[in-house]
Structures are given as structure tokens and as C-alpha cells.
Amino acid sequence: MTCFVGGKAETLDACRPVIACHSRTIASMGGPGAGQMTKLINNVLTVSNLRNIVEAFALAKAAGVDLRALQGALAHSSGGSFILQAIGHKIGPGIAEHIAALNRKDVHAFAEAMRARGLDPATIEEWAISGPDGLPALVNAMTVPTS
Known about the structure:
Helix content is about 60%, strand content about 5%. By secondary structure, it is mainly alpha-helical. It folds into two domains: about 1-30, no CATH class; about 35-140, N-(1-d-carboxylethyl)-l-norvaline Dehydrogenase, domain 2 (Orthogonal Bundle). The chain starts with a strand and ends in a 5-residue tail after the last helix.
């Protein structure tokens, strides 16, 4: 897990041993609030990428491409990502709806935070908000059976 931290460097240095108990990567992002803002940006990028995956994989399926083979091939290419590799493995049918709901909350939280700073997140918000819509169906199509 990566932990994004905002605040004074001295405070982070004092807290680093505790944070290191649960995070392999500890990233200092700037002043107070910068860690949370980084987390929101990370989440919206993940959900935006999920939208890309849902759209591209729907087309791939319609074109007759084996979705699991596609996922495996992309794991070793520039089109690969953490969220793509999680689908059907870490994100299975039992939690897909829950993850989709959390993704939507993440997009809303990101948009609210940007608007609170006088920034316009409309373009990425509009794209990302529907990313989770196809997640349950995609997970069902790609779930790796357990033996």
C-alpha cells in the first residue's frame, strides 16, 4: 500500500516508523491536505482508467477477443494497470457492486474537493463517474475460476 502524506517533513519523519507498519511506500506530498488531495487524484485516475477498461473490453468482446487472454497480455504491456489486473482476481463477483459504489463516491469526493478550490473537474468527473457502471458485468465475464 502507498500512503500519501501532507504536512511538515519533521512530523512525517517522526511518524514514518508507524506508517511503515502498513505502507511500503510513503510519499510526502507537501503541506497539510496535500496527502488527501493526492489520494483523491489517485482514486479518480483509477476510476477513469476503469471506464477506459469497461469501454475497450466491451468492444474487444464484441470483436471476438478472449477477455482473459487480453487481460493477461496487457499485464505485460503499456496498456496494463493495477485496476485491470484486479478485475476477476481481487475484484470478484461478490464485491464488484460494492467496489463500483465506492468508486462513484471517490469521483464525487474528488469533484467536491476540486470545486472547493475553485477548480473545474467537469471533464474528468463526467468521464469517470460512469466507469463503475460496467464493472459487475466485466467482472463476471473475466472472473478466473478457482480450482
